[in-house]
Design a protein that fits this description.
Blueprint: H1 2-15, E1 21-27, H2 28-32, E2 41-47, H3 49-57, E3 62-65, E4 76-82, H4 83-92, H5 95-99, E5 105-109, H6 113-121, H7 126-154, H8 157-178, H9 189-195, H10 202-212, H11 215-230, H12 235-247, H13 249-252
Parallel strand pairs: 2-4
Antiparallel strand pairs: 1-2, 1-5, 3-4
């Protein structure tokens, strides 16, 4: 909307005079074109390596900036980055970080490198998506086929909730990965699993597993997932993938699969 663009222009005019500022990248609802009347303006402020190090030393990674009072409730939601941050995000960023750059627009830049880096962050190759599917199926197999069953056998209410949450998250993440969709955060899962293409009955099985929290509902969801995306992935294969992605993440310098 015009008033958000006006607020962005005012912010760029304000920060572009600072030699430490290398760029401003518009993200969020305004970049997506889904903003509402009172939506804030989300940006990454890209600064020099030295400025980023100073901010890191002060533990200052994000803040709210107000450029006058452009419209009721207006503010600029700022996250800090430098070029090394963007390079690392393109190489190994997690889904919420990558998703935050979908539809991103460079509003100001002092370097030709910025636009290419921004575009690379939200782009993953087919082989990466295929491995994501494999990882999330392994999560579903273990949480639904092992931990959920243990929770019922032990009468453990915490493990029941934990296993159910991780099973349904893994099944949803597999569905998203099959559609090449990044996961912006857990609060979006319930809606996203309904947006991406899935086989008939999958969402219903997902809802039942989430609400009924029992092995019967979990098995039904896993059965749907295996028939759709499992491609013969055995429980032994899933066990090895699960150990690799979870228990050995510290050793491999990666992060657990639920945080991809």
């Amino acid at each position: 909307m015009e008033h958000q663009e006006r607020a962005l222009d005012a912010y760029v005019a304000q920060v572009s005079t600072d030699e430490d500022v290398l760029g401003v990248v518009l993200v969020g609802s305004v970049a997506h074109g889904t903003e509402r009347e009172g939506s804030d303006v989300d940006v990454y402020l890209v600064v020099t390596e030295e400025a980023f190090a100073r901010a890191a030393a002060d533990d200052r990674w994000a803040w709210i900036d107000r450029v006058g009072v452009d419209y009721p409730g207006s503010y600029i939601d700022v996250k800090l980055a430098d070029l090394d941050y963007l390079r690392a995000a393109a190489e190994r960023g997690d889904d919420p970080t990558r998703a935050s750059f979908v539809d991103a627009r460079v509003a100001f830049s002092r370097t030709e490198e910025l636009a290419g880096l921004v575009a690379a962050i939200s782009a993953l190759g087919d082989e990466v998506w295929a491995e994501r599917v494999r990882s999330h199926i392994a999560q579903a197999h273990l949480y639904g086929g092992y931990f959920l069953r243990q929770a019922e056998e032990r009468g453990d209410p915490f493990l029941l909730q934990h296993a159910t949450t991780h099973l349904t998250l893994a099944a949803a993440r597999a569905a998203l990965a099959a559609s090449r969709r990044l996961m912006p955060g857990p609060k979006y899962i319930h809606a996203l699993v309904r947006e991406v293409p899935t086989p008939a009955g999958f969402v219903e099985a997902w809802d039942r597993a989430l609400t009924e929290q029992c092995t019967a509902a979990g098995d039904a969801l896993i059965g749907q997932l295996d028939q759709w995306l499992g491609a013969g992935q055995t429980r032994d294969e899933s066990l090895s993938v699960f150990i690799r992605d979870n228990e050995l993440a510290w050793l491999r310098g990666t992060i657990p699969a639920e945080f991809f």
